[in-house]
Amino acid sequence: MIRETDFSRLAHTWEQLAERMKQNGDTTTPAKLLQLADKTKRAELNIAFCGHFSAGKSTMINTLLGVNLLPSNPIPTSANVVKIRGGEKAARVYSMNSGVITFDPDTEMEKLKQFAVDGDTVESVEVSYPGTFLDENSSLLDTPGIDSTDAAHKIATESALHLADVVIYMMDYNHVQAEENFNFTKTLKDRGKPVYLVVNMIDKHIDFELDFDSYKESVEEAFATWNIHPDGIYYTSLAEPDHLENQYEEFKNKLSALIVEREELVADSVKSAAEHLIDEHVQVLKSANEGLRQQWESKLTTLEVEDLDSQDATAVGEALQQAETEAAVLASLPEEARKKMEKELSVLLDNARLTYFSTNEAARAYLESRKPGFKLGFLFAGKKTEEERARREEALLADLREKVAGNLDFHFKELMGKQPQEYHIRDEEYHAAVHALTVGITPEFLAANIKDGAQSQEYVLNYCKDISNGIKLEYRRAGLGFISQVVTRLDQQVKEQNEEQQARLTVLRELAGVHEKLAELAAAEQVTREQLQAILHFQKA
């Protein structure tokens, strides 16, 4: 058995939720929670009768009670939900303008009916009557027909569902497979409500057209197709109580059994109702935010980026991230290109071998001819000496020029020529200048690299190294000059591309900002949901 303190604790939770919702600016959902809290304190079981206005709800309720408390006209007669419970005889109208008005249910029901149809000023109608299968803690709710054309009727029915612990959904035999039946009952089941279907007026069945078992099977299959699994289905006839297929007694017994299970049903129902009212509250907040949300969403339609769905927040975020990466790469391209080209030049120069054994021998002979006191022969020694010096000098120059041409100059010009192409730069003048480059290896260059000191074999090797480095230095200077030209052209190219890129980035950032605002709205709504559910689940625990 559920303890009274448990219901009191739950009711207090609903009051806490209502207060929090009021703080959030909701003016409708808190009232429903306070109604739920009042019902929870009393552990009151509400069995709501819903369905078509012509399905015989009022007649069924009167029959079950054994007293004609409700009108049974085949037209919608009430815009309000009428509650009937056990207890002392009384009829009350809760009016918006006149407060509570009391009637005698035996003698003044016609007056009550007039109030019941007035959906503009009447909040609710309640009748208590002794001697029925109901007690003070259990009641039946007669709701307006869901197929009414009057919007007030539909609102009245939907607004009462949070107070219903069990729903009896009644249908006319001939209108079972109406789409609104499936839609409404699916909504109820999705809310976690126990739903019992009552197919009334089965006396309309003509057996030779279709046997009744097949008819029942078709009803069950129709609801199953919509993934609706009711807690029970009853087939009834009030016009022919002795009808062979009439399950009126079984249905009435089921209602009595539900009343016996009142506390368990109410405990489950109010928790489910509170969950739904949290969802309803979040929907109220969403509606309040709708104007702002539409404002942001309309802005999305005015911002366009080629090959991008501006409504897709994920796609916009990914496009922005990619564009920012591309912009950063583009901005750093000239400097990165300079580093890459300079590195390639260094690798080329470092790996270019300009001196071999023949070069060393030519250098040794050349250096020897440059020693003080170098002399060749006795007759005409001066002339012969100069001729020998010139020969040795030319031999070294020829060797070096050959090595430079084959091992460095060709590869240098090839490297310098292809570097602009890597960055889609076409410049005929640049290419002509590269191929016209000449690094002079002159007698003066050879002489300038001679150092004082002993003319040992080690000195010869160092001399060859010096002239090799000197030649490479000239190529490095020339190469850096060419690289600077490429970088200058690349700077111009990047500037042009960057203007387009920045225009795209501006739009993408604005789009991302709009999506961020929309996400903030959704996040705030989700935070509210989580805070309310935390209160609910804490109390459940």
Automatic annotation (TrEMBL):
Alphabetized Pfam families for the sequence: Dynamin_N (PF00350)
Kindly state which keywords UniProt assigns to this record, in alphabetical order.
Answer: GTP-binding, Hydrolase, Membrane, Nucleotide-binding
Protein's cellular compartments:
Membrane
Q: Could you tell me which CDD domains the record lists for this protein?
A: DLP_2
Q: Which PANTHER family match?
A: SARCALUMENIN (PTHR10465:SF0), TRANSMEMBRANE GTPASE FZO1 (PTHR10465)
The residue ranges of the Dynamin N-terminal domain are: 47-200
Which InterPro entries does its entry note? Dynamin_N (IPR045063), Mitofusin_fam (IPR027094), P-loop_NTPase (IPR027417)
Name of the protein described by the UniProt record: Dynamin family protein
Q: What is the protein's major site of localization?
A: membrane
